[in-house]
Amino acid sequence: MGLERLYEYKTFETEKELRETVDGYLADYRLNTTTRMVLEYITACAMRYNGACTIYRETIATKINMTVTTVSRALRTLRELDMIAVIPSYRKSINGGRGASIFQILAPVTQHVSQDDTHRLTKKSVEKPVITSDDTTDKKDVSLFSNLSLTKSKQLSGLSDTIIHSTFIECSKEPGMNKELFLRVLAEVQAKEVTTRIANPAAYLRAAANNALKAAKKKKNKATDIVRENSVLKPVYKQSIRKEVLPAWFDESIQITKHNLPKKSKEQLQHEVEAMRRKLQEQRL
User: Fold this and answer.
1) Overall number of domains in the chain
2) Closest to 14 (Cα-Cα) out of 107, 77, 100
3) Residue 195: inside a domain, yes or no?
4) Are residues 159 and 189 in contact, defined by beta-carbon separation less than 8 angstroms?
5) 158 pLDDT band (50/70/90 cuts)?
6) Tens digit of pLDDT for each residue in 230-240?
7) How many CB atoms lie under 10 A from the CB of residue 145?
8) Which of 5, 54, 110, 276 has the most CB atoms within 10 Å of its CB?
9) Residue 153 has pLDDT above 80, yes or no
10) C-alpha–C-alpha distance, residues 135 and 95, integer Å
11) CA dist., res. 40 & res. 36, Å (int)
């Protein structure tokens, strides 16, 4: 079948309703980071057909850089929470084979849904449609994600004030993190968010802040090492005692006789001083 047949499985009338529903699902505390990334990717693929898309699990795993087992676990969680419905499909070919499943993003169930509507929705979900395609069709052609422009589409989640505040409180516990550094990182992340779709803004902001903190510590340690290295290499000037150099012909074996002068008492010195004063006075007269 052609991809236009996906309109038969749409679950929303407008794209706005789809975005509002997914925004509510993303805020559910029961979803972890991987499950939110899977839901956001499926939503991006389902924008064109108002809640329905056909895609391989392997393609989802490749796009979000996760394993197929992790993607399957996330899809099981979304199905158990009635956020999506997965409709298996089979491709008509000689040898048979598995085709891409149809994913539906379900509208939130309210008390106003009647029993007939619930029965009709369940019957439609259990139905297994047959997808006709050529044998030469590649799996990559089934993905609808390539038809979307990520830079032009509105992001499903952004850096809200709550995310920024909680991330700053968490990062401020690390030594070296200050408000100036966090605001600089926040400005860079917000600039990147304009051109690049960020699946999990909180985790991305937290990782960017940690990387900036590590870079700042590394730069500080490098500067400290340079100062320490310069202090070690700096020459130490010591006061050298000048030693008298004797000529080669000087005989050091000869002992120099020391004349020990007699020590004079204080009274004797004072008597001599008085005698010198009287002598000087007589000469002046």
Assistant:
1) 2
2) 107
3) yes
4) yes
5) low
6) 666 655 555 55
7) 17
8) 54
9) no
10) 10
11) 6
**Do 147 and 162 sit in the same domain of this protein?**
no
- pTM, entire model: 0.41
Matching residue, tokens 């051109």 = 195
Q: What is the pLDDT of residue 67?
A: 92
Res 131: pLDDT: 45
- Which two structure tokens, joined as six digits, stand for 162? 């709550």
172 with 115, same domain: the answer is no
Q: What is the pLDDT of residue 135?
A: 40
The β-bridge partners of 92 are 132
Q: Is the pLDDT higher at 174 or at 156? A: 174
- Of 151, 173, 198, the residue at which a domain comes to its end is 151
Q: Enter the tokens of residue 180.
A: 């100036």
Domain range for 164 is 158-232
229 Cβ partners below 8 Å, 6+ apart?
Answer: none
Q: Do residue 17 and residue 113 come from a single domain?
A: yes
Final residue before a domain boundary, out of 89, 120, 151 = 151
Residue 170 CB neighbour total at 10 angstroms: 13
Alpha-carbon torsion (53, 55, 61, 67), positive or negative: positive
Q: Does 141 lie in the same domain as 168? A: no
Q: Which of 129, 132, 149 is nearest to 87 (CA)?
A: 129
Rounded to a whole number of angstroms, the distance between the first and last alpha carbons of the chain is 147
- Count the neighbouring beta carbons within 10 Å of the beta carbon of residue 80: 9
* Residues whose CB is less than 8 angstroms from the CB of residue 97 and which lie 6 or more positions away in sequence, other chains included: 90, 91
Residue 163 CA, distance from chain mean position: 14
Q: Please tell me whether residues 112 and 147 are part of one structural domain.
A: yes
